[in-house]
Amino acid sequence: MLSGRGSKPGSLGKYFYLFLLPALAVFLTFSILPFAFTVYYSFTDYTDMNLKNLNFVGLDNYVKALATPLMRKAILNSVIYAFCMTGLQILVALPLAVLVNLKLKTRNFLRAVFFFPAVFSALIVGYLWSYILSSSNYGLVNNLLSGLGLDTFHFFGPKTALGSVILSQIWQWAGWAMVIFLANLQSVPQELYEAADIDGASKVKQFFHVTLPLMAPSVKIIAITSLIGGLKVFDIIYAMTKGGPGDTTETVMTVMLRHGVSKGFYGVGAAFGVMFFIVVIAISASVTKLMGKWSAAIS
Amino acid sequence: MSLFVRSRARRSRRGTIIVESALVLLALVWFIPVYYLIVTTLKTAKNATDSPLGWPDPIMVSNYAAAWERMQYPRAFLNTAFISVTSVALVILLGGLAGYAIARSRTKAGPRFFLLFLSGLVVPFQMNIISLFSIVKHLGLMNTPWAVILVNVAINLPQAVFLLKEFICATVPIELEEAADIDGCSVPTKFFRIVFPLLKPVVATLAIITTLNVWNEFLIPLLFLQTRDRGVILQEVARNIGQFSTDWTAMFPMMMLGVLPLVIFYIFMQKYIIAGVAAGGLKG
N or C: which end of chain A has fewer CB within 10 A? Predict the structure, then answer.
């Protein structure tokens, strides 16, 4: 109010751009520019045989990508994986968080153990679980099953492999989700439960009518981050199944890497990337909208 | 009435004990894969097949010596550490400077740049691997740690700018800076001497989340680090597990050496890591 432009107390003057510049340079070069190029390449005949004279080919690459059964299968698998993994993870982590949030003596111990797998790299979790679920004589689960005189189970068959991958990821990430749910639970005012107690509401009723509605913010965060993370799943597949058997666990990223990068179909790969982006945006937007409706319906 | 309340309290206490025992049991089951990993690293192949969950007999420490050598562990560790430490430092420094500039901007430019950075949160970098590959090649960064570092920084910056800007707006009092202005402090002095030290909680959160992200990142090194001498720990694990897939007792120590640095980090910093994830997660 007192002085002119640029010299207001607390304002930065030329330092505004100087401070912004380094972050902006890295972000533009390695995030925005690649995005723009991906969109551009997706409309050209860019391949490893044609690196220089790129021609505009319209929607050819998109048509090609959609006509390739492998790519359709990969998108479908990624979507199935993302939804199953997110849904199950929330179903496991939410009750777990509510129970651990009771005034338990072992609370810190429980939290530490359930969170532990989240510090592992997904790649190594993948290798570890492929030994745990292996069908050969050293697979832990099948070794125990046959020790008990039961039939062994084929965890990496065409119908079971994706489920086995999901299982390993629930194990890895449920604790992470639980920690975020716990932080949310701690902000629920205790008076609400006291009031519900006086009204004679059972604990189960309290969970559905008091706790759950107030958990909307953290459920939304876990749902969105885990759906997006699930759509771009790569490491765990690379370690556990390499996309097999057949194409039953191929995902967007395994196909993009093999087809788009290694085999040199850059244009088609880029189009595939753009379609992947559209799916990500569509799913995030609809989940956000759905969760908004949930919050609105409650209040 | 008081009798009723007491019996109800007693019942709920008994209920708590049952719930707690069940949870402890579940936690032990949850821990089995980790336990299995640890004991198997110390077993012979026969011992591991005969009693997969038993205590190792004999204890084979030599498994680790072999894995250490096969993975060229010291080199792989140093490469990973250099990439992680540099990426985390750059994310915090660049994110802090940009977050501060945006937080204190009084024109429309601030919010506009903020939105630009936030757009990074919805663009999965994985969709861009083909163009990233050609950009890295044209910049002459292929097969250097800087390719991995800069891509990691770009991926982690949006969250950093968001958390830092919000934290500065919410908790750093502008009066403090105005007082520094009156004392004739330059803007950089103000930022590094007054503002930055106040950002400790959010910097800790970011350091933890970014360390986990960068250390465990596999796809980026796989794309950009092609010769073995530049590779990171996870690439060594992947390479060796492919190569020695029949000699499976050799593989468990490799997996263990792969996760060990972060496990040690977790054991010592457990409280802060969980608090950091909770803080970063709820806002992010």
Answer: N
